Amino acid sequence: MRTDTPQIIQLSDYQAPAYWVDTTQLTVSIFAEYTEVKAELRLRANDRYTTLQPIVLHGVGLDLKSLALNGQTVPDYEIVGEELRLPAPAEGEFTLHTVVHIYPTTNTSLEGLYVSGGMYCTQCEAEGFRKITYFPDRPDVLSVFTTRIEAPKEFATLLSNGNPIAAGELADDRHFAEWHDPFPKPAYLFALVAGDLKDVRDEFVTMSGRTIDLRIYVEPHNLHKTEFALESLKKSMVWDEQVYGREYDLDIFMIVAVDHFNMGAMENKGLNIFNSACVLADLETTTDDGFERIEAIVAHEYFHNWSGNRVTCRDWFQLSLKEGFTVFRDAEFTADTHARAVKRMDDVTLLRTSQFAEDAGPMAHPIRPDSYIEINNFYTLTVYEKGAEVVRMLHTLLGAERFRAASDLYFERFDGQAVTTEDFVNCMAEVSGIDLSQFQRWYDQAGTPRLAVTGNYDGAAQTFTLQFSQSCPATPGQPNKAPFHIPVKLGLVGKNSGSDLTFSTRHPGFDSELQVFSLRERDDTLVLEGVSEDAVPSLLRDFSAPVILEYPYTVEDLRRLVSSDSNAFNRWDAMQTLATRTLLAAVQEQAEHGDLQAVLTDAMRDVLQDADLDPAVKARLLRLPGQAYMAEQYKPVDPVALDQVHTALRRHLGQALQAEWIAVFEQTQPSGTYAFEHHQVARRALHSVALSYRIMADQNAWRLAAEMYRAADNMTDQSAALQLWGQVANEEWDNAMAAFYQRWHKDAQMAEQWLSIRASAPRVRVREVELLTEHDGFSWTNPNRVRSVIGGFAMRNPVGFHADNGAGYRFLADSIIRLNSLNPQIAARLCTPFTYWRRYTPEIQAAMQAQLKRILDVETLSKDVYEVVSKSLDTSLA
Ligand code: B3K
Ligand code: ZN
């Protein structure tokens, strides 16, 4: 047990900084044993304070060698926790010089300056810069950085933010490079790289005619995996000019790939650093999903140059200001580049499966949290994905044109500043004239709202009346919620005709141009007039708000929507509802289960036979909601029983529609050379879905997967086949897996994929996963390997994880305890499966709680893990 209780940081305690740092000059000298960091900071008192305040700089693990203010040593400084405190200076403007030594080679937290595969690199967001030098490490202190790097020549490439200004030789086989970034930025955007790297180069001419030098730096053996990211970067640059009018600002834009990285990538100004897995790609080893993910992450980090870097966050509570907005921007980029409705289905699936669970659990927080212990725990699905939904709602309410005008105003007004989410919403309100004061609650209230709706047709009056009622469950610290401003995009689908019906309404909350109803009250009634026939309402089209919709649809209504809704997203959503009801009825052994199953089977048959449907949409219509999603729909959950029900339904569908699956499987056989393009991607997705049902219907069909694996010329089909084959894990599968490893283990991305397929294969149990952690391909200090094995097992292998009387839970807890001292951020992330202990049966609850308590007992528990575990166990939050 920790002897202290870590401090809770509150939004309400925010105070403006006492000093600005106008310029920062760093000299970072790399030596084998240590790295020396010399800093020269020009400080200036913030005139918001009438008297000169003490000086506070942050630092963690720094070996202070000297400290001088205006050239004089400072005798009376104090170091308290993460703060270096100096008495108030005599003048409001002064220079601070510090020299510290740091030890990157032993830094396993992967925060600050560390070594990955022989290369020095940095990760400063959120508070990693304080592990490099003493500095006011807070996002509202923006400084102009000049960085000199000195290193042995074996580190041939020396990079930092901004534009290169000088380079040259030094004594002792050393050399240097200097970089200057003219754009003031907070320390979290600082980056530095020193390594033996190779680069590919290209150019981009911006809309005003400036030529930008583009470079991707990698370890030499990865040079052949850079082309796709470079193309993605250029596409992103064009898109941001066209859709947002945003132009790139420096002369050079660099991406560096590193193997050891806690997250996907980081948007450091002019020098993005990427997890290798999120940037390296080639036609042989990358899957369709991989290409789409890489393209989206490259775009996301590039888009941050404006939404995050030019306009940044005042404090870390505002994280969603940059993350929610940037996720919305990258999602729209993907939608414009590929298939809009499909991207929406995938995003909503993620939101419903994982973000809704987070919002219903002990870590629930608003997209702008009001307190935290460790900010790294708040880079969550809520801040990112729900944050993006909140921005999307603004887009829905304003329409594309006014949204663009408001974003122009935002970027212009706040360029070079650190601002709040209110500043963003206020621009939206100012441009549109819409009163968004109630909308602000989306930023401050946690939990997923429920939207209960009923509908009634009056044939004589030709009206369709919708009654709305909203509520939101209590979440930690927020027992009561005020009503949200919910945009409900809607239509009416004729019960007989199946067509979209026209209507009018006198309700002032309905925007008839956008077909969006603004629900602001807890309860409200919307009367639609001139409705020529009885209808099925199609509500929340394109998922216009992140809420749970409850409408008493009959199965006939749902079938009507599946077959006829003009909104492709809502067709899919109706099928999801039908499948969810069927699964629930089976889990709860309800009498109507048989009928529901029959209706679902018929609906799927229609989809299978519909020749006009985009195969990508078809593949998604035919996929059942996942077990993780189902586990949120009822209580208590027995995951093994849920798996049986889920498997039984897939088997039923496989058998009942066997002829159709065979037909689709044959129609979607691969042809031509592999390319990452929509028609092929769609065909491959549908092919795998068909095969998965064939295997459910006939255990011997694993031979088809084996054949598909051997015949495939691409990794999408190979890995899909291996995973499907893995469901019936047999000796042949073990042999194929062993051969796969032999063939690919030198390629880091492939080794990670192999580990993940193994750990998440449904028949794989905890004993085998323990052995995997002793495998050559595994490493406790590489987050990608840890995520593949421990994450793959605990998050993507429900049967294996929950089986064996809690052995899986013990293994996860042991892993967390081990990682706690190596890499607290990764350790805290792996606690997620335990945070949901309350959804399970009493035996599972007890077993998981026991492991949580065991973790909490660790004396050296990091604040990262402490926060997640203590909140999970807190009974007042139940
Ligand atoms: N901003 C970074 C995430 C930093 C994570 C710090 N623990 C990546 C991104 O969202 O673009
Ligand atoms: Zn981001």
Automatic annotation (TrEMBL):
Every Peptidase M1 alanyl aminopeptidase Ig-like fold domain range: 447-551
Stretches assigned to the Aminopeptidase N-like N-terminal domain: 27-189
Q: Which reaction does it catalyse?
A: Release of an N-terminal amino acid, Xaa-|-Yaa- from a peptide, amide or arylamide. Xaa is preferably Ala, but may be most amino acids including Pro (slow action). When a terminal hydrophobic residue is followed by a prolyl residue, the two may be released as an intact Xaa-Pro dipeptide
What's its EC? Answer: 3.4.11.2
| Keywords for this protein | Aminopeptidase, Hydrolase, Metal-binding, Metalloprotease, Protease, Zinc
Q: Which GO terms describe its molecular function?
A: alanyl aminopeptidase activity; metallopeptidase activity; zinc ion binding
UniProt keyword Protease, yes or no: yes
Q: Which GO terms describe its biological process?
A: proteolysis
List residues traversing the bilayer.
none
Lineage top rank: taxon: Bacteria
- List the Pfam families: DUF3458 (PF11940), DUF3458_C (PF17432), Peptidase_M1 (PF01433), Peptidase_M1_N (PF17900)
Q: Please tell me whether the keyword Zinc is annotated for this protein.
A: yes
- Read off the InterPro entries from this record: Aminopeptidase_N-like_N (IPR045357), Aminopeptidase_N-like_N_sf (IPR042097), PepN_Ig-like_sf (IPR038438), Peptidase_M1 (IPR001930), Peptidase_M1_dom (IPR014782), Peptidase_M1_pepN (IPR012779), Peptidase_M1_pepN_C (IPR024601), Peptidase_M1_pepN_C_sf (IPR037144)
Cofactor(s) the record lists: Zn(2+)
Indicate the segments forming the Peptidase M1 alanyl aminopeptidase C-terminal domain, all copies.
Answer: 556-873
Q: Which residues form the Peptidase M1 membrane alanine aminopeptidase domain?
A: 228-442
Family stated for the protein in its record: Belongs to the peptidase M1 family.
Give the protein's recorded name: Aminopeptidase N
* Species classification: Bacteria, Pseudomonadati, Pseudomonadota, Gammaproteobacteria, Oceanospirillales
